[in-house]
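Q: Could you fold this chain for me?
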Amino acid sequence: MVTLNRRKALALMGATATAAGLATPALAQNRKITVGALRFTSHAPSFIGVERDYFKDAGLDVELKFFQAAPPMAVAIASGDVDYAVTAMSGGLVSLADKGAIKIIGGALSEEPGIDGQKILVSDAAYQAGATTPAALDGKSFGMSSAGSSFHYMGAKIAEKEGISLSYKPLQKVGAIIGALKSGQIDAWSIVPHIAKPLAASGAVHIVGDIADYLPNYQVTTVFTSAENANDEADMTRAFLAGFSKGVTDYNSTMIDQANGDEGVQQMVDLIHKYVYTDRPRDKAAPSIINGTMRLNEGAALNTASLQDQLSWYQSEGLVGADITLDTVVDASYVKTMS
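A: Sure. Below is the predicted structure, expressed as structure tokens.
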């Protein structure tokens, strides 16, 4: 077992470019843990778990800690500042797992046929110049947070299928990527619909495709923790996954399956608005929250075939070691896996 402080974790990052099925273990009440999150609709299960006391019922006192991008969450997990988080698989996360610091323990957001998913965006300047489809992006620039990020992976898969070449511009934070796209400093990007659709509605950006057409069963985000928690804190980890999975079930049944009708949707929007688009009035935030609806993995089930594809791509690009196996990155003992 390896424990990394923040400095070591940052150095390592820089070196690489069904809920009911989860039994809630008995824990001492109010065990304090910290959960990392982005202010994205797709992180709703963590918000629901807090607001509806699902974590509390599992014996956990959860504090949410918010980040502006995924890579710093991996650093925070490795250094012990955060106990659990949801983020995309990345080259940095894989490298930290290879050092014995991190384990993926479940799945969160997936692309699913028939469910609205991540959009491919182009700037208005690029669109007016003829980039009206992904195939027309040859030679264009594509925004990403950093090399080896999920944005990098998605762009590469678009380019591979279309037989085109893209140049990648690392901009670190989602807000910076949005600003660069709107101003025409980059030509293209891909992102979840609750961000993509409002951008397109502004006229400064255009939607030209769907990631599902290129990665139909893409495991977009995963649930992960420190290797120490995965190995030595099984009860706490199962408790977290139980609370998180109840949030997933509430979200899917309400927002996707419409089990509680429009009233249920509006109540869920109220809950999510406490954490997402908090700088907007509720009436302005609601359409974006609803537009961001994507099905989340019941029971935090994990698509290991998708994760293997991602790992293989990182290896093919020389972003992570060629000898790393998926077992190094994933602890598959906690949830149902799909391959």
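A (continued): The radius of gyration is 19 Å.
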